[in-house]
Amino acid sequence: MDLYFSHSDSTEDERSAVDAILGPADSRWMGGHHSTDLDVRTAATGHTLRAKRHHLLPVLHGIQSRLGWISPGALSYACRRLNVPPAEAYGVASFYALLSTQPRPPTVVHVCDDIACLTRDADEICHTLEATLGPAGTPGSDGQTTWLRSPCLGQCERAPAALLSSAGLHPWEKVLTETTATTIMSNLSSPNGQPTDEPDCFLPSVSAPQAGQSGLRLLKRIGTANPTSLNDYRAHDGYKALEKAFEIGSHQVIQEITHSKLVGRGGAAFPASIKWKAVSEAEGPCYLICNADESEPGTFKDRVIMEGDPFALIEAMTIAGIATSCERGFIYIRGEYPLAIRRLENAIEQTRQAKLLGKDVMGQGVCFDIEIRKGAGAYICGEETALFNSIEGYRGEPRNKPPFPTEAGLFQRPTLVNNVETLVNVPHIILEGGATHASIGTERSTGPKLFCVAGHVKQPGVYEVEFGVTLRKIIELSGGVAGNGNLQAVLLGGAAGAFVTADELDIPLTFEGTRAADATLGSGVVMLFDDTVDMRQILLRIGRFFRDESCGQCVPCRVGTVRQEELLHRLNTGKTLGSPKEELVILGELGQVMRDASICGLGHTASSAIESALKRWDVFGSGKQNP
Amino acid sequence: MSSPTTPSDAPDLKNPVPRGPIPTIPDEKLRPEVEITINGKSVSIPEGTTLLEAGRKIGVDTPTLCYLENLTPVNVCRICVVELEGSRTLVPACSRKVQPGMVVQTDSERVRHSRRMVLEFLASSVDVSTAPELQSYMEHYEADPARYGPSASPASPSERDDACPGEHSAPDPATAETVHQPTKIDNELYTRDYSKCILCYKCVEACGTDAQNTFAIAVAGRGFDARISTEFNNPLPNSACVYCGNCIGVCPTGALMFKSEHDLRKEDTWNESEQTKTDTICPYCGVGCTLTLHTQENQIVKVTSPLDQQVTNGHLCIKGRFGWQFVQIREASAPSKPTDAQEADT
Ligand SMILES: Cc1cc2nc3c(=O)[nH]c(=O)nc-3n(C[C@H](O)[C@H](O)[C@H](O)COP(=O)(O)O)c2cc1C
Ligand code: SF4
Ligand code: SF4
Ligand code: SF4
Ligand code: FES
Ligand code: FES
Question: Does residue A624 lie in a domain region?
């Protein structure tokens, strides 16, 4: 490619931010400072050059955390290094909420004002910050700080939450939970610009209240084994499953997965064994991806596993990778999870040193290694094909299916994508046998399941149960309804899920049970709202979420989510265009085209929760929507 | 195209010509045929073709906006969706390949609903006044874009270009949001009125690997704020653009427009029915691109190239596309309606 790079000269700072990720430029062609012999002797072209594009997002992260924004000079230099057209790189940079293509103060407070935090006074925090720092997005009086509203940060059990990030030579990030405006401000005003108290910590008893109980599988080690120590993990049955997997061989591993009837926990409920088989039979290089993007509002189970038992995920991926002959695995994790990222990095480092990852795993002569890729604030990148594009250095726009990931996924190679929770089931299946796993739960929903219980509940957190328990049971398990004690609504499955009423608590929380009740299990969200909650605000927030998170590629979702949000505001203010009844008809029509004609699951489900609520309650005093 | 050259009427070449027949493109029919059913009629069509082509074979007319024969399908506009038996959602005809036994409905209630809504979404957010094809679809599917309320006032210059992903201000319940904004006029050759942009990605493809390989423009931003942009919204003269005009050639809505057309429209003297189209060969180089000169009142007002022309596939370079002013400088008669560009030149 013969690319044109704009004249924006890069500064020393900008170049060093990029070089910190890519290493120094080896010639002047690559934007290096000095001509060397290489300049006249080499020409890196063709595949060599194009193959560097997947470094784009890590480089953009590097620039953002050094400079606080993606400046023209830095982008131009990055493009030269990676041979990416600047217009395309700008398209990528301007896609992610955690990156800014305009100058932004180095320290940013991302305040979650999503639905769980809304039930815990997130609005008050926003109002106070508005009064002290100024309107969202504008620099505070010192020019060093700004704040932004954020969608769910995946900390709902400890709502309200905020993410602090500070750019510079020594960038830092910190998650504040059960926070207040005062705590946020005191963290900002610490003298050396570093956060005041402990780095964000993980408390098993808070995030997984069952921690330490017997009979748990997925949460077994949370709170009992030290999540930073491989030795401790091994002392708690760690790596027994990988040993057994080597004993029984890849073919048998896949057999066990088939017998277990394991289905995906990421939301789509697709049988794992079908994907595993397809990838294991494919020829040539294949990839394994662990989907840890976890951005569905109300979901935090994957975070709890990665923070509390990171080695389990590494072991599970190793089993999956080797069984399906993938030599390389990626963990695509949302950028808002700094602690989980640190714990996984540590876990990978330790397992590599112990030769449990790398060229010769467990001395068995097979190769498997894992790389972490950080998202940058885009819910849509959890959609598997958008995730591929994101890793490859393109905009996180979903691809048309077919072809499916198992045929042409990451770098157009057959790819196995599984959710974190799906994967951590694997070691248990290998150790206990697929048949045992299948005997847990119901005929069509087998095994243990994690639920993310939050909102107006006495003891929020991640709960592990065997498939089959009812919604009522989950609520009892988590201490019952909090708030004023009068349950108004439960959101199942997150923003892409459905609301149910207090009369529907006998729904069995299985894939088939929720489907029969016209709801969905989705990502395992169970969010409670007492009857003081203004459901109008909840629905408006969900409408805003989808409008913000649509990738913008296809018309039904790009415009449909805007029209849907406008319509909700019309209902809310009573300034309807036609009669309220007519508005509800339009809402139904919007939902229909998004479900029928959108490219991906985001558009397909963008109206589900809203319509489920309007079918059950007369939220806006406009009547109910016809079921 | 002309019929294949036979040896008898071939030009008398000085160099020896190898013996034997001139190789031709392999016959379409060599691909195995696939049997599918469209609207109850069975169709036999070569493997690898799309539902769109299959429909066209039996006279089913499927509307398209983001599809063009000479570009890779991006399947983003979703106007072409059809109902496929066994599929939970509708599927895009422009890119879905035929598979044996497919049963397809192209005019069911669900299909018409989606097409009508897509058109309403576009027409309520985009200025479609220079998109005749889209307007005719709207009539056919009885789209009523007005039912989402009156249009919000246009954005100020660069307001949409400065939008931050994942953020937007609360909607105004009294109006429907649009992409309306001032036209970008930053060079003498063509204008970009993104109020008219339906984000079909065609210009990006034409600027990229499908034709020009210049990569001057790409989609930036996210969601409703997604837009066609150079890096940092740089003006075109400060971007990689080489003014081949291939983006203009593929734009279905008139968002990208010759400056000459833009100026005439502004003066309200653009008159398409009075225009004549003349095919000729570009005089500049040996490639021999076919140019279609659009003339009005004896002035060339724009230049296109036929999509099905084998040399160009509809694509040109700056010389063929814009370099025709010299034709108009005639003895003793200055152009009667000089454009800004020409004024600047003299
Ligand atoms: C908008 C959208 C967001 C998604 N986000 C996630 C996510 O954060 N984590 C996840 O595991 N799956 C997510 N998915 C589902 C993935 O596309 C995919 O189905 C899943 O990762 C497959 O893994 P599983 O079979 O183990 O569930 C999302 C899907 C959509 C449409
Ligand atoms: S449905 Fe929405 S998120 Fe999915 S591809 Fe279309 S615009 Fe993007
Ligand atoms: S004129 Fe040519 S180079 Fe310029 S943006 Fe259009 S297609 Fe790209
Ligand atoms: S400018 Fe024209 S070609 Fe480009 S995306 Fe918009 S409508 Fe399509
Ligand atoms: S962390 Fe705020 S809603 Fe989830
Ligand atoms: S023409 Fe098929 S999606 Fe646009």
Answer: no
Give CA–CA dist A215/A118, Å, rounded.
34
Residue matched to tokens 């602690």: A339
- H or E segment and range at residue A292: strand A287-292
CA distance B122 to chain A (A): 7
CB contact under 8 A, A596 and B226: no
In this structure, which residue's CA is closest to atom 6 in ligand 4? B197
Give this complex's ipTM.
0.95
> H or E segment at A603?
helix A601-605
**Which residues of A are less than 8 Å from B78 in CB distance?**
554-556, 597-599
Best substitution site from A399, A554, A555, A565 to test ligand 2's pocket, by max atoms within 8 Å of Cβ? A554
Residue whose entry in the numeric block shows the structure tokens 């972490």: A372
The average pLDDT across A213-224 equals 96
Pairing of strands B290-296, B276-281: antiparallel
| Residue of chain A whose Cα is closest to the Cα of B232 | A90
Tell me the pLDDT tens digit for each residue of A425-441: 999 999 999 999 999 99
CATH of the domain at B249: 3.30.70.20
Most confident of A145-149, B2-6, B24-28: A145-149
**A504 located within any domain:** yes
| Tens-place pLDDT, residues B214-260 | 999 999 999 999 999 999 999 999 999 999 999 999 999 999 999 99
| Cα A381 to Cα B85: distance, rounded to the nearest angstrom | 29
- The sign of the torsion formed by the CA atoms of A338, A342, A347, A349 equals positive
pLDDT tens digits, one per residue of B139-171: 999 999 999 999 999 999 999 999 999 999 999
DSSP β-ladder status, A328-333 and A369-374: parallel
pLDDT exceeds cutoff 60 at A539:
yes
**Does the structure show a pLDDT above 60 at B7?**
no
- Chain B hits for A554, CB-CB cut-off 8 Å, are 75-78
Q: Assign residue A596 the CATH number of its domain.
A: 1.20.1440.230
- Split into its structural domains, chain B has a count of 1
Q: Are residues A358 and A429 in the same domain?
A: yes
**Which pLDDT score, from 0 to 100, does residue A141 have?**
87
Q: Which residue has the tokens 């050396």?
A: A192
Model confidence pLDDT, tens digit, residues B259-280: 999 999 999 999 999 999 999 9
Ligand nearest to the CA of A524: 1
DSSP string, B28-96: GGGSPEEEEEETTEEEEEETT-BHHHHHHHTT-----SS--TTS-----S-TTEEEETT-SS-EETTTP
Lookup: tokens for A213: 């109980």
Q: What is the DSSP string of A125-193?
A: HHHHHHHHH-STTS--TTSSEEEEEES--S-GGG-S-EEEEE-SSS-EEEEE-S--HHHHHHHHS-TTS
Q: How far is A364 from chain B (nearest CA, A)?
A: 43
Q: What is the pLDDT of residues B33-82, one digit of tens each?
A: 999 999 999 999 999 999 999 999 999 999 999 999 999 999 999 999 99
Considering only CB atoms, A566 lies closest to which of B162, B173, B231, namely: B173
Q: Where are the beta strands (DSSP E) in chain B?
A: 33-38, 41-46, 81-84, 91-92, 103-105, 190-192, 218-220, 227-229, 256-258, 276-281, 290-296, 299-304
Mean pLDDT over the full length of chain A: 94
Task: Determine the distance separating the centroid of ligand 2 and the alpha carbon of A409, expressed in angstroms.
Answer: 18
Closest C-alpha residue for ligand 1 atom 5? A382
Across the beta sheet with A415-419, the strand order is A369-374, A328-333, A287-292, A415-419
A123: CA distance to ligand 1 center in Å? 29
B242 within some domain: yes
Whether pLDDT at A211 is above 60: yes
**Domain range for residue A173?**
107-189
pTM beyond 0.90: yes
Q: Which residue has the tokens 């489920």?
A: A612
